[in-house]
Design brief:
74 residues; mainly alpha; rod-shaped
């Protein structure tokens, strides 16, 4: 376990005299913001088969292999 001198301060109060409750609230807000920022990940690409746009009818394209292409996402 580290002693108080060995611990690194998360922030420093430069003006005023905050109460213990105010410091605790500020600590909670800063830790929550830091943890939510690190869990953000890039959005994953949706599966085209479950895309609602696919339910809309697209123009029919007659020709060889048209039946195969009619069921595949564009």
């Amino acid at each position: 376990m580290s002693t108080p001198e060995e611990r690194r301060a998360l922030f420093r109060v430069v003006r005023g005299e905050p109460s213990d409750e105010e410091v605790a609230a500020l600590t909670a807000v800063l830790l929550a913001a830091a943890s939510s920022a690190s869990t953000d990940s890039p959005p994953t690409q949706r599966d085209r088969w479950s895309d609602p746009v696919r339910r809309m009818r697209t123009p029919l394209r007659p020709g060889p292999g048209a039946w195969r292409a009619s069921a595949l996402p564009h």
